[in-house]
């Protein structure tokens, strides 16, 4: 929100009388009832009332001038004196007029009732509510700040779900449930586990970012998993049925004859779970040569090389 002094067209040296006078003038200009054809009238009026709410309260005004709270009355930092846990007393406590933006009055300077302004400007009907005579809810005290935390889980836990204990700032340990099928970078909102409001409002939330740890066998690609499988040379040449590990357990996969290294095979439904089922597992085969010398194989390879060279000539 803009600087409240700028909104009211005042300098920081303005008196309480100047603030009241500026508000009366601008409220009359921007009231939604008098600007029904302007779609931004409510937004302008909400900004105006919020600015007046802050500057007409001498305590809030002083805190804003010192940089302790922002233009919306929210603390810039915690630990300063002068705030209690509950709402302030004052002439605005029972005034419920606000716009659709949720802004309204809560407090006035001593001896001044803001309802008198609207009664003077728009008649006695303005005492009961906003445009159209509808009652609006009083603005609630600011909520506490949200806190951020992160948690790294295994791929298996991300797929099947799990319970884990985490430490929230400053030093609160809680147990959280990791939902089944969560993806990397997903943020879980933990309601009411953030910082307490210094004004007596609702506490903030904890925003927990979940990361999936790298897996020794599988690589995550969206809802698809990828893995590499070593295959014996004779199985790649002649074809074979091999066992492939998946997150759900090992399964059989058929390799056709003359399968080259680097060839991909798709196992449907063996990837990460989705709303409609599961992704796929892509298996890339790597041909595994014998670790020990094999004279018979070497002789065959020399023969094939010779034949290939002769054909090229």
Features:
313 residues; alpha+beta; Helix Hairpins; HSP40/DNAj peptide-binding domain; 3 domains; four-stranded mixed beta sheet; three-stranded mixed beta sheet; 13 strands; 22% strand; elongated; DnaJ_C; DnaJ-class molecular chaperone; J_dom_sf
Annotation field: number of helices: 8
CATH topology of the largest domain: Helix Hairpins
Estimate nothing, just give the exact number of structural domains.
Answer: 3
> What CATH architecture of the largest domain would you give?
Orthogonal Bundle
Any idea what the radius of gyration is?
35 Å
- Large-scale geometry: elongated
Q: By helix and strand content, what is the structural category?
A: alpha+beta
The amount of beta strand, in percent, is 15-25%
Bin the helical content. 25-40%
Report the span from N to C terminus: 82 Å
Low-confidence stretches: 79-112, 127-137
Strand order of the largest sheet: 6-7-13-10
- Tally of extended strands? 13
Mind describing the biggest β-sheet? 4 strands, mixed
Assign the CATH class of the largest domain: Mainly Alpha
Mean pLDDT: 80
CATH superfamily of the largest domain: DnaJ domain
The SSE order reads HHHHHEHEEEEEEHEEEEEEH
Task: Report on the architecture of this protein.
- With 313 residues, the protein is an alpha+beta fold.
- It folds into 3 domains: 130 residues, DnaJ domain (Helix Hairpins); 66 residues, HSP40/DNAj peptide-binding domain (Sandwich); 77 residues, Urease metallochaperone UreE, N-terminal domain (HSP40/DNAj peptide-binding domain), CATH 2.60.260.20.
- It is 26% helix and 22% strand.
- Helix 2 runs antiparallel to helix 3.
- The longest helix is centred in the C-terminal third of the chain and has 18 residues.
- The radius of gyration is 35 Å and the shape is elongated.
